[in-house]
Structure formats: structure tokens, C-alpha cells
């Protein structure tokens, strides 16, 4: 009778481990879908305009020596 209880405890432990792994898989799947949606929703042109200062934009818009050659 004791061996049956030990095996039952091991089975419940294994079952709980698989349930936990399943929850992690579902969470990571949902997280990756949200992250992909977030990346698709970003407007990279507007984002780069916000990150680059006005002085840097003026320098980038100016023709360089190398483009004149």
C-alpha cells in the first residue's frame, strides 16, 4: 500500500511539473504575440525623429563632402 502512495505522489509531481511547463509555454506564446504586435505597431520613422535631435537632423540632411565627389 505504501508503494502505491509513493508512486501516486510521483505521478502527481510529474503531472504538476508538466502543468507548470504548459503554463510557461502559454505565457511565453502570449508574450511573443504581444511583442510582435508591439513591434508592428511602432512607426520607426516617427520614433527615429523623436530620438534624433534637431542639430543631428540638420547635419544628416546637409550634403556631405563624400556625396559631392
TrEMBL record:
Record protein name field: Uncharacterized protein
Source species of the chain: Chamaesiphon polymorphus CCALA 037
Lineage: Bacteria, Bacillati, Cyanobacteriota, Cyanophyceae, Gomontiellales
Amino acid at each position: 500500500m505504501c508503494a502505491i502512495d509513493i508512486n501516486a505522489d510521483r505521478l502527481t509531481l510529474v503531472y504538476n511539473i508538466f502543468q507548470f511547463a504548459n503554463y510557461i509555454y502559454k505565457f511565453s506564446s502570449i508574450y511573443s504575440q504581444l511583442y510582435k504586435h508591439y513591434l508592428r505597431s511602432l512607426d520607426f520613422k516617427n520614433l527615429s525623429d523623436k530620438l534624433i535631435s534637431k542639430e543631428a537632423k540638420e547635419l544628416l540632411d546637409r550634403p556631405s563632402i563624400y556625396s559631392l565627389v
